[in-house]
Design brief:
With 279 residues, this protein is mainly α. 80% of the residues lie in helices and 0% in strands.
């Protein structure tokens, strides 16, 4: 079973995964808008003073580049970090460290990512920024998840959930709940627990009308039901995922492929082939 985790900054990592798999027409529109914003930020840098405003411009630019040009993101992040240190702008330093982690995460260098995110987390704790703390706890949990360390992943996700609930931040609450459910979905003994967390996350995401999250969480739930041998509920949530992704121009390939597996199990091979060919 392959479940999609949701991370912060996605929530930027969640967004990274989703943006990498959007349909071509949406990617084209997104890319044009992103390029325009990047050009705008570069233009602002030419006349910016050496102050916190410039730090924030550099941070924004670094964040927008991490998934497509990670090395350039790191270079610009270094500029932001150096200026923030000169200004003793601790929040700017914390976000620069976070952006370094995002770039190295893209490059698959989890050791470097972990180091930068641990530094960022500590700094957010020092300056009393609970949103930053929640984000970094969630992201560090994602590293442990990717490395197969479920116990540590759960520990960080639960900490992120606690902070997010204290903030009343529904988006991050849903993210943490989904990720906890993702970890529990690894073992048959905890499938019911996985469903409990994912269903809570789905309810929140539906309240927020977050179609991408609804699509991702629903396919995860469908995948869990499929692993439990419950074809009826698997198809119900896979259809929900398909509907949400199509409304948001999201990627439907994983959902369609999983639906094909369900129909194969049911012996409806023609329909299974149709879905898997569309995937």
């Amino acid at each position: 079973m392959s479940i999609k985790p949701i991370t912060d900054t996605f929530l930027m990592i969640r967004l990274k995964v989703i943006l990498c798999i959007l349909v071509l027409s949406f990617l084209s529109n997104y890319g044009l808008a992103q390029d325009a914003r990047i050009d705008s930020l570069k233009a602002l840098l030419k006349t910016a003073n050496e102050d916190t405003i410039k730090v924030n411009i550099l941070l924004d630019l670094s964040k927008r580049l991490y998934s497509v040009e990670p090395d350039e993101s790191i270079r610009i992040g270094n500029q932001a970090n150096d200026l923030a240190e000169n200004l003793d702008f601790k929040k700017g330093i914390a976000y620069a460290l976070k952006n370094f982690g995002l770039a190295y995460y893209t490059k698959g260098k989890y050791s470097e990512t972990f180091g930068y995110w641990q530094q960022s987390l500590k700094l957010f704790e020092v300056i009393g920024d609970p949103t930053g703390v929640s984000n970094l706890l969630n992201n560090i949990g994602a590293i442990y998840f990717n490395l197969g360390n479920d116990d540590q992943a759960i520990e960080y996700y639960l900490k992120s959930l606690k902070v997010s609930e204290q903030l009343g931040d529904k988006l991050r609450i849903a993210s943490a709940l989904t990720n906890i459910g993702t970890v529990y979905s690894h073992k048959p003994a905890t499938y019911e627990l996985a469903l409990k967390y994912c269903l809570r996350a789905l309810k929140i995401s539906e309240g927020l009308v977050d179609l991408e999250a609804i699509g991702t969480i629903s396919v995860n739930i469908g995948d869990i039901y499929f692993s439990m041998g419950d074809n009826k509920n698997a198809l119900f949530y896979l259809e929900k995922s398909l509907e949400a992704y199509r409304k948001s121009s999201g990627d439907v390939s994983y959902t369609l492929n999983t639906m094909g597996k369900v129909y194969t199990r049911q012996g409806d091979f023609d329909l299974a082939l149709e879905y898997q060919n569309d995937a």
